[in-house]
């Protein structure tokens, strides 16, 4: 019995043209960060606005908070890291927040990652 060479593989099909993904148009209107800053600045509370009151204000303004819960949390955290908001109580995206009057000061840089910001006592 003579061994036969394996049959040559059929020629590879020509590469298909790459499909272009349809990009979604950006929604017109303010970003979530701008909505949060507007809601906090509209409040007259001396100690700041709580996170739950902030979510209620966003929902009253027409933003779907239940659907975008994670986006609201990350937006609050990023505004605190940038120095736009001051966190008066709590940790992370919970607690109370107010507008930072001293916006000229640099925010504290995180020492390992964004989730654990450096805390000054």
- The coarse silhouette is elongated
What is the mean pLDDT? 81
Q: What is the fourth-level CATH superfamily of the domain at 32-99?
A: Winged helix-like DNA-binding domain superfamily/Winged helix DNA-binding domain
CATH architecture of the domain at 32-99: Orthogonal Bundle
Quote the CATH topology of the domain at 32-99: Arc Repressor Mutant, subunit A
Given as residue ranges, the uncertain stretches (5+ residues, pLDDT < 50) are none
Distance between the termini: 86 Å
Element pattern in H and E: HEHHEE
Question: Which radius of gyration do the C-alpha atoms yield?
Answer: 25 Å
Oligomerization category of the chains in this entry: single chain
Strand content: 5-15%
The main pleated sheet reads as: 3 strands, antiparallel
Number of helices: 3
Question: Structural class of the helix and strand makeup?
Answer: alpha+beta
Give helix % range: 25-40%
Q: Biggest sheet: strands side by side, in what order?
A: 1-3-2
Summarize this, please?
Belongs to the histone H1/H5 family. The chain is α+β, with helices and mostly antiparallel strands and about 120 residues long.
């Amino acid at each position: 019995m003579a061994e036969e060479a394996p049959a040559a593989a059929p020629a590879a099909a020509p590469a298909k043209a790459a499909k272009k993904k349809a990009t979604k148009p950006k929604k017109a209107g303010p970003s979530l960060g701008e909505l949060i800053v507007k809601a906090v600045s509209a409040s007259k509370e001396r100690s700041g606005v709580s996170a739950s009151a902030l979510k209620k204000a966003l929902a009253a303004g027409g933003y779907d908070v239940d659907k975008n819960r994670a986006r609201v949390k990350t937006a609050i955290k990023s505004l605190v890291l940038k120095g736009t908001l001051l966190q008066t109580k709590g940790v992370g995206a919970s607690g109370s927040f107010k507008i930072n009057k001293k916006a000229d000061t640099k925010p504290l840089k995180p020492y390992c990652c964004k989730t654990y910001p450096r805390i000054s006592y």
